[in-house]
């Protein structure tokens, strides 16, 4: 009895060209999709106004501590004693706010902590400290 040789049949061909096409298609797809994930602010556009428009994120208020120790509330020089009242007033007018604390790196640490304390005493729950990214 003779056994059939199963290996003598034709071997399947691996078609590499369609695989390369698919890989390039996926590569282009992911490159194009990542371009739209980043907020692109390259073209200045004046947007129209609408009465029913709602803000996606809360307004931010900039508070700066200069290297001389002066406190700036939205470009206005303000003494530390009045900061708490001003923060409460802004929160009453605008509702939910994010306070962004920008401090000079040579400013006194105690002055920055005092500003943070005043923000906390005023009831500011959302405080961000602005920094710059280090170059590697």
UniProtKB/TrEMBL annotation:
<feature type="transmembrane region" description="Helical">
    <location>
        <begin position="20"/>
        <end position="38"/>
    </location>
</feature>
<keyword id="KW-1133">Transmembrane helix</keyword>
<keyword id="KW-0813">Transport</keyword>
<dbReference type="GO" id="GO:0005886">
    <property type="term" value="C:plasma membrane"/>
</dbReference>
<dbReference type="GO" id="GO:0015031">
    <property type="term" value="P:protein transport"/>
</dbReference>
<keyword id="KW-0812">Transmembrane</keyword>
<protein>
    <submittedName>
        <fullName>Biopolymer transport protein ExbD/TolR</fullName>
    </submittedName>
</protein>
<keyword id="KW-1003">Cell membrane</keyword>
<dbReference type="Pfam" id="PF02472">
    <property type="entry name" value="ExbD"/>
</dbReference>
<comment type="similarity">
    <text>Belongs to the ExbD/TolR family.</text>
</comment>
<dbReference type="InterPro" id="IPR003400">
    <property type="entry name" value="ExbD"/>
</dbReference>
<keyword id="KW-0653">Protein transport</keyword>
<keyword id="KW-0472">Membrane</keyword>
<dbReference type="GO" id="GO:0022857">
    <property type="term" value="F:transmembrane transporter activity"/>
</dbReference>
